[in-house]
Write a structure and sequence with these properties.
By secondary structure, the protein is an alpha+beta fold. The protein has a single domain, classed as Protein of unknown function (DUF1491) (hypothetical protein tt1805, 3-Layer(aba) Sandwich), CATH 3.40.1530. The chain contains two helices and five strands. The model has no long low-confidence stretch (mean pLDDT 92).
């Protein structure tokens, strides 16, 4: 069974909150089927944006880097994606240590 986007986002934000990692919904997308982008802001002028991607070889869905580098460049990449997909969710995670928890079990 596939989770809806709003349930996944809620669970992700809860997991981050329990780990004391600040995160914010920057753009709320379609509640049922919106794609989700995760922007990791390391608070040093750098950022990284992750998106879920389908691996054709294994059939798995994995988090991959959409863009990485200076925060304004990453923001530009996200803005471009928002132009393509009005149903897109954007979650910003702020952590100096670079933690995003996307590699933990249950978030794939």
């Amino acid at each position: 069974m596939k989770l809806t986007a709003d349930i996944w986002v809620s669970a992700y934000l809860t997991r981050l909150r329990l780990s004391e990692i600040p995160a914010f919904v920057v753009q709320k997308g379609d509640a049922t089927a919106g794609a989700v982008l995760i922007k990791l802001n390391t608070l040093d002028g750098q950022a990284c944006c992750y998106q879920r991607s389908f691996d054709l070889m294994t059939g798995d869905r994995k988090w991959v880097v959409l863009s990485d580098g200076p925060e304004p460049d990453v923001d530009g990449s996200i803005a471009k994606q928002r132009g393509f997909d009005p149903d897109l969710w954007v979650i910003e995670v702020e952590d100096k240590q670079g933690r995003h928890l996307l590699d933990e079990s249950g978030l794939d």
